[in-house]
Amino acid sequence: MPKDYLKKILTAKVYDVAIESELQRAPHLTQRLNNQILLKREDNQPVFSFKLRGAYNKMAHLSKDELKRGVIAASAGNHAQGVALGAAKLGCKAIIVMPTTTPQVKIDAVKARGGESVQVVLHGESYSDAYEHALALEKKHRLSFVHPFDDPDVIAGQGTIAMEILQQHQGPLDAVFVAIGGGGLIAGVGAYIKAIRPEIKVIGVQTIDSDAMKRSLEARRRVELKDVGLFSDGTAVKLVGKETFRLCQDVVDEIITVDTDAICAAINDVFMDTRSILEPAGALAIAGLKAYVDREKVKDKTFVAIACGANMNFNRLRFVAERAEVGEAKEAVFAVTIPEERGSFKRFCEMLGQRNVTEFNYRIADAKEAHIFVGIATQKSSDSSQIAKSFTKAGFKTIDLTHDELSKSHLRHMVGGRSTLAHNELLYRFEFPERPGALMRFLTSMSPNWNISLFHYRNHGADYGRILVGIQVPDNDKKAFRSFLANLGYPHWDESQHPAYQLFLA
Question: What percent of the chain has pLDDT over 90?
Fold first, then answer.
């Protein structure tokens, strides 16, 4: 099956708009991981992403009549910019449907790429809404649809990346790591590699909360996710493509999943080696490569990771820097309970020895016990469990929060926020779309019998916000509250029994 795509990739029309991106050695990563690490720098493309390859190849294969009628696409990100650039190059008109939630900076970027050739239509609150509207406009105006991943010409365009890798590095190559959203990139890359050098492993990387392809391959059928994590927005796809799934069944050796902290650490790693800043999806392959090396304990191998995009909002860097320390195992976070008595605080500090304290939060709350939120600099991932054991052995009750989302995103900023008035409080984490009216929609959906008793929100410069809410709900309203959550449509997590919440806020 991969050979079916070999001719398509070899004859793909991408270089009118794309460059042959550099295959660059990453010296710091190479030294740290004891393997040769090469980065395929697709972040250096004219639109700072690989997406223009597939989009342009699809458009360049359209007939003159099809180009004259124009093209249409649905996208809120890199694919939209690729289609816009292709439309300007080919002199055809393009309609790009984007959700109403799309930040203005992305809308402006698409218009700038396409100029007068591109019309941006804002419709719906999600990509799915925009996609359905684009299909309706396609039929109405007899336009040609340029799919972001599930199209043979788009897949072939992305496959030219693999063609370049094998031309640029003709020596031993053990594995190529590829980010997966809908599957267009890995389908094209895998098809070429397995046709030419099948001994090279093709390893996909997804986030733990957007792993539709991994689940689909395991189930041997396409699995649609109910919700997807939004940090790596470029790979936040609920349902992979039919054609990409068909190909991936034959060309993907395995899929590794990583969390937000690992991605942030990978962004930092690439910055150290290149002084370039990748977007989360762009760093996904590097995070997966590191996880693979750690799992397999391999040395002296040669690996390629595709750095597939760099369309990063500057405001997100605060969050990335904050979480990279944990992702790189340079910080561990704990909730520690000590006796509220003279000398106990000093004894706890002596336990830290020469370790560097990165954060320390405390507020008096109880006559008998003190609860401390503390961050400690570490050298390796196993340090956190060892530190926790040493605290417990010394008589201090300890909870290791190093990998706990509630604590890292919210609780560390809220220590000391207790209230005797917060009875019947339910604690929930939500992800809200970052747009005007999102909070009002939340508030107006609530029953007037419920009271917000806690609210914490931080803007990370992303397309969504992380929010922690305490809601006081009478016992006889619990059924109505469950209905409220189901109808709201925002991803949410019940944190009411979270041990750190019980220590610091309940």
Answer: 52
